[in-house]
């Protein structure tokens, strides 16, 4: 029986890979044709005004989002049917959020890649066919990634997506920053000037990812602990949603326009992240040692870093932000790896019509 199950699982995985290959081909064709139609006219440079960058990124983002939707519907159709309304709503909202996320990741990756290529290929201009092929390549990469995620996405995958998107968005914002000496102030300085949309948009989408991570953490904890733990799990999901909303608000309230509100929201996001981390760690059954140690280390090191920055002046705010973000990502990586070990992979519909009572 065990050998039969293994062969069935292998056959299923191979079928999924075959589907992903066809999704890549379809994404390329769709992206290339759309790109050619959009770029008919004079040849365009890779970046700058009237360039290939925005159309190519937009085509890739739309195709990637479409691939995720098709894959999710194909592989998870009917999964929410046995769920109560509140559980199906959360599941559907998470899927919608991820659709936006995959579009944003593909678009931001394309913009950063074109920014780098423009430096190495100065003076290059492409016509409709060349630009269309470029759009097809972007769509193929994004479509393959998104289709695979639609087949099965773990909480650990989401944490990696968050880290990757933050890196892509921040690097692109750095490359287009209005003030090349932004680092002498803080990361929020990237949210000002003509290219402010890149950094501020990155924060908004990152906030959406964090809220979705919280939803997936709640899902995994429910699979582990069952309905009896819902009153303890619900505050965790809410705290992560608030943390994501606060991070998005940092991008929606740029430092150069509303400095007081920006700083208040930034501090609130940090406090909410720490509170969400502590609350999540306390709900875990058996208090896994790796998570407990990382949580205590996170709180202690963030406190020490804040003191060294503001009380002693050992380093600047930019360095403090890098330290806090790095510690936060390390904690989140530990969390999702522990979840990957403990949480079942099967969906678990709740028997409760209300999340907080029977």
Automatic annotation (TrEMBL):
Matching InterPro entries: DUF998
Keyword Membrane carried by entry: yes
TM segment ranges: 20-40, 52-73, 93-118, 124-146, 158-177, 197-217, 229-252, 264-284, 291-316, 322-343
Keyword Coiled coil listed: no
Keywords (A to Z) from UniProt: Membrane, Transmembrane, Transmembrane helix
UniProt superkingdom: Bacteria
A Pfam cross-reference name: DUF998
Name this protein carries in UniProt: DUF998 domain-containing protein
């Amino acid at each position: 029986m065990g050998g039969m199950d293994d062969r069935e699982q292998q056959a299923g995985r191979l079928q999924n890979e075959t589907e992903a290959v066809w999704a890549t081909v379809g994404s390329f064709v769709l992206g290339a044709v759309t790109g050619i139609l959009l770029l008919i006219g004079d040849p365009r440079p890779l970046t700058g005004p009237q360039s290939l960058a925005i159309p190519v990124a937009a085509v890739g983002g739309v195709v990637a989002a479409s691939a995720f939707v098709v894959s999710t519907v194909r592989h998870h159709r009917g999964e929410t049917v046995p769920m109560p309304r509140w559980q199906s709503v959360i599941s559907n909202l998470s899927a919608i959020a991820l659709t936006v996320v995959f579009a944003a990741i593909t678009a931001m990756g394309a913009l950063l890649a074109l920014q780098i290529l423009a430096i190495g290929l100065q003076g290059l201009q492409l016509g409709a066919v060349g630009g269309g092929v470029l759009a097809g390549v972007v769509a193929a990469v994004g479509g393959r990634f998104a289709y695979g995620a639609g087949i099965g996405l773990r909480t650990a995958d989401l944490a990696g997506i968050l880290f990757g998107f933050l890196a892509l968005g921040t690097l692109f914002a750095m490359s287009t920053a209005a003030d090349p000496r932004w680092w002498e102030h803080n990361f929020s300085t990237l949210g000002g000037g003509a290219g402010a949309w890149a950094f501020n948009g990155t924060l908004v989408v990152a906030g959406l990812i964090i809220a979705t991570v919280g939803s997936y953490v709640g899902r995994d904890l429910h699979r582990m602990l069952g309905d009896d733990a819902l009153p303890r799990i619900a505050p965790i999901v809410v705290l992560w949603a608030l943390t994501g909303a606060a991070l998005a608000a940092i991008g929606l309230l740029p430092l150069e326009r509303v400095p007081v509100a920006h700083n208040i929201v930034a501090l609130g996001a940090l406090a909410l992240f720490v509170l969400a981390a502590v609350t999540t760690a306390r709900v875990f059954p058996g208090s896994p040692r790796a998570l407990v140690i990382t949580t205590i280390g996170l709180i202690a090191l963030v406190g020490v870093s804040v003191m060294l920055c503001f009380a002693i002046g050992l380093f600047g705010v930019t360095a403090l932000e890098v330290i806090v973000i790095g510690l936060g990502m390390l904690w989140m990586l530990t969390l999702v790896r522990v979840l990957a070990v403990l949480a079942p992979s099967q969906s678990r519909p709740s028997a409760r019509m209300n999340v907080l009572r029977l």
